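User: Can you model how manganese (II) ion sits in this protein?
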Amino acid sequence: MINAMLIADLHLSGERSATVELFLRFLKDEASRGQRLYILGDLFEVWIGDDDRTDPIPEILTAMSDLAASGTELFMLRGNRDFLIGEEFCRETGCALMQDAAVVNLSGQSTLLMHGDLLATDDLDYQRDRVYLRSDEFRRDFLRKSLEERANLAADMRQQSRDAQSNLPDNIMDVNQETVEQYMRDNGTWQLIHGHTHRPETHDFRMDGRPAKRIVLGDWKESRGPYLVDHGNGLEGNIFR
Ligand SMILES: [Mn+2]
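Assistant: Here's the modeled complex, given as structure tokens:
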């Protein structure tokens, strides 16, 4: 039996049907072998509200709910693309919503799970926008609009974010090491797992005189689903194809 599997940044959408198929197969054939599945944000390319039933959302919700019903516990935290995931989504999928950041036990080691965008503190414009987008005010005003209006606004915001990113030096969007250590120290963990940057890597460093580790999960591509497995005696990176 596998204790847990961890994934992030699938960016599922109607335009990425191969990745959707890969994820559905992953839930059925692979995640079902584990006791817990952790989704560390950006499961969806965009989420405009739990009432959106555009394809392929219904199929994904059903597959997640089938997995939960079969006995695998599902946990997720919101990413910067799907931060509007709400309670209705959780009820339908059987997924428990985690705080960003959340401490869990993996192979006996206390581990901090995050999406990762909170760690990119060198990008001041992004962090400022993030505060507004996560506010109750924005959430309320946005969700009050029609689905069509929301879809259009979301498309505009994605275009703006692409324009903003294209003007930034590459390293600005990566994590800030001091911020990483602050989050780990504040949570009493020497191991951190996150996604968001699409820079899969294991970073070993020392913090407060002890060995520390930051594992970055990779994003999913059409035929390539990176995931981390907790066997109970350690973590192992795998690729689902
Ligand atoms: Mn992200």
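A couple of observations from the model: The radius of gyration is 17 Å. The chain has a mean pLDDT of 96.
User: Helpful, thanks.
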